[in-house]
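Before drawing any conclusions, I looked closely at one protein's amino acid sequence and its backbone structure tokens, quoted below without any editing.
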Amino acid sequence: MSSFNQNVIEEFRANAGKVGGPFEGAELLLLTTTGARSGKPHTVPLGFLRDGGTPLVVASAAGADRHPAWYHNLLARPLVQVETGTEEYEAVAVPAAGARRDELFAQVVRAEPGYGEYQERTARVIPVVALQRTHEVHDGEGGIAGKLLSVHGWLRAQLVHVRELAGDREREGGAAPLGLQLRQHCLAFCHTLEFHHRSEDAGLFPYLEQQHPHMREFFRRIGAEHAVIARLQEELVRALDAPGGDSAGEGFSDRVERMSRELESHLDREEAQLLPVLRALEG
């Protein structure tokens, strides 16, 4: 990260989003992506506009011929963190495509003509990215049990959204390429699911098994279910890049439905067994 960006970030965080110098008076946010190669968090200050209540950021790179690193990062890992002057939240970064991109870029240029000058400098189409706040689940319960319910609620909500987007595509004929909206939300769901299950397998479950040896067989069954779900998840990710979003003769929507059935029953079984144990530990 450049020292200039780091200074802006520090000033932003110290002054509730207000900065001086060349950005004085401008609306800024901090966008934290996950490095496509490094896997490390990468934070950049960006100007933004709003489309309704959704922040829009523009991958202009001042008119350079290559997309900025943060844009490549969010294509690989769509789940991002957004900081404004008053709040911090999680979002799925979704680049606009086709006519929608052109419409939004025209809106951006009307508000900030400099972006039009940047586009004139380069042959690449400068992306406009919507930062769509994820569905926040607040169960109201604290501790590890509350965290488990919160993560499960997030996964359920994202999967519902992916199913809706896939269903919309299916109703339009199902032959069109998967849109960026569907791709980004599906990747965000898959990456979060993978991280959650790995964390359970490596940390939570071994700890609970030590405390409750009689649950050993349950954890073996849950681990086997994780393996099945991981295969479905890998198939979903591969299908995202297949022609028309289909792979091995099975439609993308069919894959989403299979994932939904497997995951819902898995989460229900896990909660039924684990929540009483977790609540007892914290009681």
